[in-house]
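#struct-pred
JK: can someone run the complex with zinc ion? inputs below
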Amino acid sequence: MSSSAAGPQRLVVAGLSATPGERVTGLIRVDLGETIVELPLVLIHGVRPGPRVGLTAGIHGAEYVSIAAARRVIMELDPATVQGSIVAVLTANPPAFAARSIYLNPLDRRNLNRVFPGDPAGSPSERLAAWLDANVIAGSDLFIDMHCGDMNEALVPFTGLELTGDAAVDALSRRVAEAYGLDYLVIGPLPGSTTTAAATRGIAAVLGEVGGRGQWPESDVGVHAAGLRRALVAAGVLPVSEATGPAGRVSTLLTLEAWLRSEVNGYWHPAVEVGEVVTAGQALGEVRDAFGAVRGAISAPIGGVVLFLVTSLAMNEGDPLLAIGAE
Ligand SMILES: [Zn+2]
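RT: done, structure tokens with the ligand placed:
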């Protein structure tokens, strides 16, 4: 499934071209309507045939563990070990990265991971999504999207995948997600996301989440990077010898997710920790006003694991509070 634009020996994406055994990098100018951004694109053309993997990191601009881990693996890989090809955008939302923006692209105040597959004539985020969908997701055999908790979020490491209904594609997603080797594996759609866009195209898609809170310690970057390497091995793009770094673990499968949001503006006082197992009805925290009076008491609609948790005191109506994954 290599790109065909300049003949069978070349991988060509967005004007970049790689021959077998080559890694090529470039800053690709993408017109977002009101401004032009430069996306850091990497093509790795393996020396033997194999699947094409599309990869993005930094869809959310302040998710530094994913950005640091993707860059490390993609720039350290020896193309001579690769079977197939990799098309990677190492920082997929440069305006959000530059602004250290939580959730949103500052150009239009939209969450890039809610507007896929985008619109080439739409808002800046919609145009960016359309470009990534057309150039990175489309044409791939497997798509991997690397995230972590945002600047204001803690999380327990987990992978996500979405079912396409095609048994062979879904088996690939499952194999790759399990190989990533994080604590939990969450199955379920996220409308408007990269992975939903990929699944809609019938492409295997895996989400990886490690770390957060605006920090990028080696302990987290190393886990995310090692997970990506194992995922690429499981996909058949890398040999087993490339599965280096801290060992993975057997993921606990979660099939249900409750994503709780605040109904009021205020001050968020969580009563649980990320990774904690909660029971249905358990008090999870309160949103208070400026004087400390309780405006919203949050309880668990289901029992399960707190997968991510907003850790900032500031809370806005409609913003996420936490998510629960259930077995
Ligand atoms: Zn994210």
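RT: quick notes.
The radius of gyration is 20 Å.
Residues 131 and 245 are 33 Å apart (CA to CA).
JK: thanks, will look after standup
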